[in-house]
Model the fold of this input.
Amino acid sequence: MSERSFDWISAAELSKLFQRREASPVEVVDAMLIRASKLQPHLNAFVMIDEAGAKAAAAASEARWQRNQPLSPLDGVPTTIKDTTNVKGWPTRYGSHATDETPVNESAPVVERLQSAGMILLGKSATPEFGWKALTDSPLQGTTRSPWNLNHSPGGSSGGASSLTAAGINPFNHGNDGGGSIRIPAGHTGLVGLKPSFGRIPQYPADAPFADVISQGVLSRTVLDTAMALNITAGPDARDWRSLPAEPRDYTVGLDGGVRGWRIGLSLDFGHVKADPEVRDLVAAAAKRFEDLGAHVEDVGPLIDPLQLSFEPLWIGSFATRFRQIPTQLHGKLDPGFRAAAEKGLAITLAVYAKSYEAKSKLARDLALWHHQYDLLLAPVAPTAGPPVDTLYNSDAFPRWTKGAPYTLPCNLTGQPAASMPAGLTKAGLPVGLQIIGAPRADHVVLQAMRAYESASGWTWPQAKVVETLKGL
Done:
């Protein structure tokens, strides 16, 4: 058993090995820690690795499996937590010099649930400063790189999680999504990334900027792993009054129900987004697979007005809220792009902010009504493949509203479930994501569509290009 490789193994496969006593959590964690340490200097995906804590948790998990008393099917499976999220006893740094190393006193609900299921925390994953952009580099942590091509970004803001998952270090990793921060890095690294319905997985603290658009989730390599993770993390928590009521559902049941007879809309540009031609072609071809599966797919044309005019006040106004809390003497240590957006947000008035909130409500209503006629909406995840690591986000060359998150942000504003699935590779060998969007609170429908697409796409891990990139490291 000690010579077995656990690279790119799924959580579901690990669970079966544990049940059959063909592998132990201890040997799995040891192997994944070795791989993590080897790749960290090249990917820079970890903020911290808790080797001692992970090994202690693995030993406890192994003892439970030996007693036939696992806490869940995922007992003993290693994961990580994005460094925007509290883990008791660890600091939460947000990639910023404006934070400190003081350990927090209480874990977020999603962390408590992962640990209550027996999952093992290897450490924390990298994020841009305060999760502000769809790339992952920060003043505190530096630049995180994609295992597909080390000169390219794995996306953001859950870029540490996407880099770890695509590199095959462990099966899936926690992320969260306030504007595309699960789906964009999943799309840029060929992963499965579900943003569950807002409130499906509770948040705490839930009073921070963007708290009303953020969903917790994971970045994985299979739909089954995603469903298993949702099983152990979904459900209400009294600390989050916006969390959804308990849903008596096993998300792994019905995954293979297919999409025959479903009515699906396709919008390649939402009416205003100019995606790269390669992205459009790959997404259009990916949508065709749903027709092969028996669904009816039709181009539904323009759906959403350009986002910037209505919703920039919410974005930069929330940054300004964070900025006001940072001591003046630390402003020079902030990411210049974040600081520029936050300073612009200082001028946002309450009236303008309220008008944006009204537009948010209207968008949610309009798309909910649209879904009365369609089961799903398909679109690109991003207008481009993963950009170079030196890309300046929200610059003239890469503006947020047309290059960063124009396809993903609407589902954060509406709260509906949406996912990224691999659509294929560009000529440069970089992944492109297909976005699958469901009606409000229809997470199980989105998962079923994801699984149908996965079965037809032929996309499997490990991917040869990633293996080749990592082989010499």
Remarks:
- The chain has a mean pLDDT of 97.
- The longest strand covers residues 418-425.
- The first helix runs from residue 11 to 19.
- The chain has 15 helices and 13 strands.
